[in-house]
Known about the structure:
Shape: globular
Number of helices: 2
Mean pLDDT: 76
Low-confidence stretches: 4-37
Structural class: mainly beta
Number of strands: 10
Amino acid sequence: MKQNSKSLLVLLALSLLLSGARTSQQLVSPKPEAPIVSVNSEKLKGSVVRIVGLLGTKVQSGSGFFVARDKIVTNIHVVAHPGPIFAKLVNKETVWAVEGVTAYDVKNDLVVLKIAGEGTPLPLGDSDAVRPGETISVVGFPRGGTYKVLTGTVLNTRNSDKRIRTTADTVTGNSGGPLLNSNGISRFGLNKF
Length: 193
């Protein structure tokens, strides 16, 4: 019963987001629009965003990243609340309003947001190619704070919930950010914490 209530709440919040959407649904291009970036590169800072939502006087935050010039992907639970949602780059001067939702997957807690502006998309890869022992980097805004790149290794990939377990020291706020391989390709999908 508790799970049904949680699912209903997520669907209600998602419907609120969808009701304000001003764009029609479209698929994200499967081909990368950006070159491979180093995890230590300044270019990466133009691809990963802090997602900020206002819920009354409380600030909700998580991470996300560009998958197309005007589209950011994150976890649904990062944006599943009423109120305005914004995406901010590391420099804190670049802020975009979220215009709507272009695609979502409730089962996998994923949403693609259309923003009013452009950023640098990260190339996507195949999360099925992940192997235990592989080095990864987790990029995001832990605890809603400053931009961080955390490193670790993949522990396992064969979970019932299909999450990739790593040794990276991730916390709340990293949700929605990319997991990158050593070539800077987000082939592992999203963090889910």
